[in-house]
Amino acid sequence: PGMLDPARLLGSTATPPGPTTSTRSTARVPLITFHLPRRYDAGGTLKDTALLSALMADCDVLGLQEAGWARGLVDSLGWTVHQPTDSTGKPVGQLLAWNPAVWDTVDLGATLLSPATRVQRKAAGPTLHREKLIVWADLRRTDTGQVWNLAVVHFVPSKHMGGQTRALWIRQRDELLAWMGRQGPRTAVLGDFNAQPRDSLAAPLLEVAQVQAAVSHGRRRIDWVVHKPGLRPVADTSALSNMGQSDHRPVRAVLSG
Asked: Cα 105–89–80 angle (5° rounding)?
């Protein structure tokens, strides 16, 4: 369960039957982004399963950061999972997962967000940040036929310290902006951005996209759903329970367009 079925890869060589014009409508798409590192695992597999099951019951697409360890668990719960490898052949820490009853897979991929980069010693996280990717999937709604371009990212922390972390955050921002500019109108990116929407360095993103966020890490709003302005929120964006499994809370946004 959850593994990619070649019959659902709708590329140029396959022309699946689409919905008739009379059945097409505007979809409401619930999305959840969540930073889920293994080091906070206090409840074992049972708690992990309960948490992920609850999140998957509350969305159609789930973007996870620092959660490479959870690939098998998400697979076992019946969703399709995309976790590519980086240029060294190592699986990345981000997972993009979706409900196969709601989405057909059009295309999958990964785009470089930033190469392996060394940052100052006092910054949060490792001194050498591994290569980061934009993990993306183009998905077609089974009910409306709409194609959405969805992705998950994880930005570097400690940009406020200046120096290498600030430069790396800016590079990641600009690479994401370039990628979004090549996508269609129904594009949304889920991620831990390690920044708040009103931070000055985020301004270029807000010039061309909208951000849905909630207080998710202490008092900060650093876990976002970034989307093109053709999409609009149709419910309050909220932070959900993490069941003690992370120092972040999951953030849920519902988009339509």
From this structure: 25
